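Same chain as my last thread, 212 residues:
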Amino acid sequence: MTYLILLGVTYALPTEVHPVGIALRGVLSLAVVWAFRRHLPPWGKPHWPVAILGGGLVAWGWVVGQYAADAAGLPGRLPFYPGEKVVADPRLELGAARLFWTTWLLRCVVACSAVPVVEELFWRAFMLRALVDWHNFERLPLGHFAWRACIGSALLSTLQHPDNWIVSIPCWLIFNGVFYWTRSILCLVLLHGVTNLVLYLVVLRVRDWSFW
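reply #2:
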């Protein structure tokens, strides 16, 4: 909730102070996680090879899959989701100099640190168990498998990525699969962070702002 509230605050700020909002979102979100660290489940092992290789492959699949979906003429935005998909060059709003690069750097850092921590604690540590037993999820071990949780969480992820909903579903299924295999939140945090890092580097490489 802290992350979501600060996300809204960031977009409500004037453009020139967006970097401040982004930095606060990352720092305060991690601060809340740290404050409640004693109530969190075990993080597990990092499984570095799985995290690094898996993160790179998922990022590749996200880009290739989105291009394939666009080429096939599939809806750009999640059907029945309000609004339309809009891809705008952020340099038109931020300029191409210092403000743009500061914003890109801070967005990248937050996407590779706070975002994976917050999302993996929510989706893998909580939601995969809550969709099995909402009122007693803590009684279930991490990595407890149930089809309704695995598929249900993947479908729910489209609400978080309405403009990339087609690739969001297989991405979440892969993340879920790795979590069921490793039973490690830390591995998924690292894998998620690597995925986001590669995507932000792709943005600079191909200047495709649909991945911004």
